Amino acid sequence: MQTNVFKINPEDIDMSLLKHAASILRSGGLVAFPTETVYGLGANALDAKAVEKIFTAKGRPSTNPIIVHVASVSAAQELLSQWPAVAQKLADRFWPGPLSIALPKSSHIPDIVTAGGPTVAIRIPSHPVARALLELVGVPIAAPSANLSMEISPTLAVHVLKGLDGKIDAIIDGGSCPGGIESTVITLATDPPTLLRPGLITLRALESAIGKVQSKSHSQKSQNSSEEIAQSPGMMDRHYAPRAGLEVTESNGASRVHALTSAGLRIGWLKFGDELDGKLDGEFNKGETALTINMPTVPEGYAARIYAALHEMDEFGVDHIVAELPPNTDDWVGVLDRLKRAVH
Ligand code: TXA
Ligand code: MG
Residue 344 has what pLDDT? Predict the structure, then answer.
């Protein structure tokens, strides 16, 4: 299969190109598209055969449910058997935007989308290309991140092609995704609601909208891990790992990086908060044996850069990555979660 690339400027959308992408989706094909978080790999969520192609292209286990993207709250309601007041509060506050809300599904949603589970996770994306596409397609779009299973999410079209070229019908290249990490996932099927995957919308922000939210982030999971994986496989260890091994350090990584490069290894170094910071936000220096990236020191900036930085390190062919950890505060939970998952 040839993967067509449609280049679309999010600030000046070429509707004829987008119509073409929409028609591929309507006829059961797979189209990758930019969102405000990461690139998604879209299929018509109401077409079980089309959704099955997503699992095949990604090599995704059939036990991992897929987020459904819609254009409006009424479109979300059609896919759900309940719309409680808490859901309305969350939608009012955070949609369109990077929050996926899981609720009991209606019979419209094929079982393959939810991995046979009783709930479906839904969001209204805010990215102008994603929104225009949803309007044109006129059906909900099931879309996981557009990467091979177990690899890191794409924030640029080239990252998508790296894993999926020749396996999907088309990709809409809308430039880089501003958010950079996947949406926050919350389920309203528990009381109180449970944060399943942290993201740029923080626990504190969720609680300020709806009151108590329990957190089952990956670092705090209980002994019964197989049950939790079934509930949200996004909490699996190593779900978002670069090809090279990654280690994190709470202190300055200089001596560790020096020791590793002295031993002849090519090292990727994600620096945090040294004196260069602020001047060299997100830029990198290529040496012979180390690729150093000075990561931004605000969570939104760090998140926007992290996956691209890891893709660059894979590209450079590092043997190992050393990442200096950002502070352990509420604002950083989403980023810390992705760094910890990348450790292996
Ligand atoms: O930002 C995002 O969420 C991106 C863009 C494309 O929207 N999508 C994304 O999808 O990250 P994916 O499949 O890579 O991650 C979805 C996560 C997985 O951890 C999955 O287990 C969880 O959401 N999930 C999906 N449906 C669920 C459900 N009904 N209940 C609990 N967790 C669910
Ligand atoms: Mg993913």
Answer: 67
**Sign (positive or negative) of CA dihedral 149, 150, 156, 160:** negative
Q: Which residues of the chain have pLDDT under 70?
A: 217-240, 274-288, 344
Q: How far is the CA of 282 from the centre of ligand 2 (A)?
A: 23
pLDDT, position 124: 99
Q: Where are the domains of the chain?
A: 4-219, 245-343
Residue nearest to atom 6 of ligand 1 (CA): 40
Q: Whose CA is nearest to atom 3 of ligand 1?
A: 183
Architecture of the domain defined by 245-343 = 3-Layer(aba) Sandwich (3.40)
Given this structure, which CATH class describes domain 4-219?
Answer: alpha beta
Identify which of 182, 227, 235, 306 to mutate to test ligand 1's pocket (most ligand atoms within 8 A of the CB): 182
Measured at the alpha carbon of residue 244, what is the angle toward residues 161 and 38, in degrees to the nearest 5? Answer: 40
- Helix axis angle, 203-210 relative to 85-94, nearest 10°? 130
pTM over 0.90, yes/no: yes
* CA-closest residue to ligand 1 atom 15: 144
Same topology for domains 4-219 and 245-343, yes or no?
no
